[in-house]
Amino acid sequence: MNPTSPELKRLVLPILAFALLVGSGVALIWWSKQVLVGAQRQLAAVSAERAQNTERLLRIADEEREVKEKIAVYRQLKKLGILGRERRLEWADAIKRIRAERGLIDLRYRVAPQKPLASIPANPGTVDFYASSMKVRLALLHEEDLFGFLNDLRASGNAYYSVRDCTLSRTGVPPTAPNLAARVNADCDIDLITVVDQGAKS
User: Which domain covers residue 137, as residue numbers?
Assistant: First the structure.
């Protein structure tokens, strides 16, 4: 049965409405997909930014920890008196005091001119390490006096005392000799190391 003209006229509005609804539905689906894609892109951008911020915070935390460690080392070096120019008068006073306190029989020493140490890997450009070689000869009652002298020397500060070599030899004093006779000679080579920061403000 073919629709008549009046029937077609009555169907025009429903058909147009249907077509409009279908078109609106398609447009809504397309718009929803675009919104979803945009949201996904925004989420990816936010996630990337968050990852960058997290990485930046971790890097800042590492740098802060490294700075704190360097400050702790700096304070320790400063406390030991290692930082700055060499202190020969203080070294001489310390050795004189140690000899008197330890009651050492004889102590002679000679300090060579200061020399820069070889370049150290990862050494900051403004920091230089210097060493003054000291030869020490001691006349001792027994070997323990040498360890006591070296411990006191390290504890005195004013430099980092690096013992390169120590040679002990018997004096040949017989057991019947007086108690104050030296029985051991010690010859030591010691590096007195100081650290100078050329970039530090005076």
Answer: 88-197
